[in-house]
Amino acid sequence: MTVLAIDINDAGLAVANADGVLAVEPGVAVVERGKILTGDQAVAVARLRPRQASSRFWSVLSQEPGSAGVDLPSAAELAYAQLSALWSKAGQSATDVLLVVPAAYRSDQLGLLLGLAQECGMPVRALVDTAAAAGHRPYPDAQLVYLDAGLYRVTASVLEQGADVAVRSEHALLQSGLAGVTDAFARRIADAFVRATRFNPFRHGETEQALYDRLPRWLEALQREERLELQLPYGGEDVRVNVERDEIVGAAAGFYRAIAQLVAQNRESNGRLVVLVSDRLARLPGLVGELARLDDAHIEVLERGHAARSALLAAPRANGGDVRLL
Hints:
Blueprint: E1 3-7, E2 13-17, E3 20-25, E4 29-32, E5 35-38, H1 40-43, E6 53-54, H2 75-90, E7 96-101, H3 107-119, E8 124-129, H4 130-134, E9 142-149, E10 153-161, E11 165-174, H5 178-197, H6 205-222, E12 227-234, E13 237-244, H7 245-249, H8 253-265, E14 272-277, H9 279-282, H10 287-291, E15 297-301, H11 306-314, E16 324-325
Parallel strand pairs: 1-7, 7-8, 8-16, 9-14, 14-15
Antiparallel strand pairs: 1-2, 2-3, 4-5, 4-6, 9-10, 10-11, 12-13
Helix pairs in contact: 2-3
């Protein structure tokens, strides 16, 4: 029996089995000449075709026309296209599937997701709450909080530990997710190019796309380096600029403070705190350092695909019957 877990998060849909993480791709779609591109293929052209691109279809999952954006298929159609592509690429041999789902999904959205998965031919066993899956490891005598983010939402889930783990409450920063902070970093870098060279990457679709293509690599480098040389192609040449880490990270200062406050406001008045930080958030340069300033708190950075892999350990074996929400 091969069990597969799929973590539904628009900042990075993760597919895992007992051997490890099989795929991670962003929840982005682009409609090009009637064909729907998803994941990394869509990200590679999304800035060139902004009117044909959508990154909200997972967060607003719906069959309503226009739910994914003007002149685009419904959010459900785009979600189905991505889910089907993931299943074809990584899941055909699976005998059981666990869908790891955000707590924000309403019952109608969970039903719609289940219908899309079954339309793909997935043998879905159960739906598992993301935070509960991520926090399955016990932390005795500590309050446990799971911190995660999608493209348009940040959540702090307070977990209750006992014989099993359960989500006691979820608290969110609405309309404030990884898409917004990524745009803030991109604008700060574009401003650095303008000040140093008068070259504005946002004036041309090709250079804007090139900036976003390189941004994840630059942010990763800024986790280690205090100063970085950035370059972008333009007019057959490479335009270069040097930036300081504090200058770029400063663009996210308010976002980081809001996340730290979200955790602080929902911690118990005394006792040790353990904060589990998803890899999606931990990749942001400087965020873990901001969280480390919380009093008497242990910050643990989770590996890529952690919630999906943990769901495989936490979920019971299939025993027939209806699909359950765990």
